[in-house]
Amino acid sequence: MKVISVLGQKGGSGKTTLTLSLAVAAYKANKSVAVIDLDPQASACKWGDRRNADPVIISVQPARLRNVLATARENGADLVLIDTPGRLEQSAIAAAQEADLILIPCRPTIKDTETIESTISLIRAARTKAKLAVILNGVPSRGAQREQAEDAIRSMAIPVYPFFLSNRVAFTHADVLGLSAQEFEPSGQGAREIKEIYRFTCELLNSATSQQSKGKNHGKKTRLTAGA
Ligand SMILES: Nc1ncnc2c1ncn2[C@@H]1O[C@H](COP(=O)(O)OP(=O)(O)OP(=O)(O)O)[C@@H](O)[C@H]1O
Ligand SMILES: [Mg+2]
């Protein structure tokens, strides 16, 4: 079983959108997938209520996260995605500790990129063995904001995905209906972007497995080696 934790100190960066989009992509790829919602606002759970269909979404207190993951493993889950609240450090640390891969969605603005360092500090405090990468979200169709944000993040030695999510109304419309963008508009550009991100995420998870089976640096420090 693989665990992806979606983190970020900044509110509204796209944590829940990314978590749910990847969960639906995995579900459509016939994976046994569950979403754990650590956010007291329960945005992922409420989306699940609107949807009233798989994937399974469970609201969990951070103190119970390890037990819930153990149960998911016993029940044969392939993938668990953890959605976290913006400002609750205990949740972020618990999610980072359990992750194989940490994804940090970030909007391409200076205010958003500036918060990345505090998110990274939290992740370091968690002493996780997880891989980590930023995914740019809400990228405008014009201008150089994406390139500027990528440069700012890479200058902190933090990997950035080579794929991103554009600013598209499909994401907000889908949210209202309890759908993901790939369900709302299967042949749309948002669906294509999610597919690319899902495929790249699977590659990262697979390479994490092969590194861990070689026993390299296991548990010693955060590896910022997403290869992106
Ligand atoms: N790429 C996008 N294009 C357009 N709208 C988006 C995009 N990504 C997210 N949104 C919208 O922005 C809002 C915030 O996104 P989301 O809830 O995923 O952020 P969050 O990081 O989970 O926020 P919070 O910190 O409050 O949990 C939602 O209304 C969502 O539909
Ligand atoms: Mg959220």
Q: Outline, from the CA principal axes?
A: globular
Q: What is the distance, rounded to the nearest whole angstrom, between the alpha carbons of the first and last residues?
A: 23 Å
Return the structural class.
alpha/beta
Largest sheet: 7 strands, parallel
Brief descriptors of the model:
228 residues, Rossmann fold, seven-stranded parallel sheet, 7 strands, 46% helix, 16% strand, disordered C terminus, binds adenosine-5'-triphosphate, binds magnesium ion
Can you put this structure into words, describing what you see?
This protein has 228 residues and is an alpha/beta fold. It has a single domain, classed as Rossmann fold. 46% of the residues lie in helices and 16% in strands. The chain contains 10 helices and 7 strands. The protein has helices at residues 15-28, 43-51, 65-74, 89-98, 110-113, 116-125, 145-154, 169-177, 181-184, 189-213, and strands spanning 2-6, 33-37, 56-59, 79-83, 101-106, 131-139, 165-166. The chain has a 7-stranded parallel β-sheet with strand order 3-2-4-1-5-6-7, with helices on both faces. Strand 6 (131-139), helix 7 and strand 7 form a beta-alpha-beta unit. Helix 1 packs across helix 10. The longest helix is centred in the last third of the chain and has 25 residues, at 189-213. The two termini are 23 Å apart. Residues 215-228 have low confidence and may be disordered.
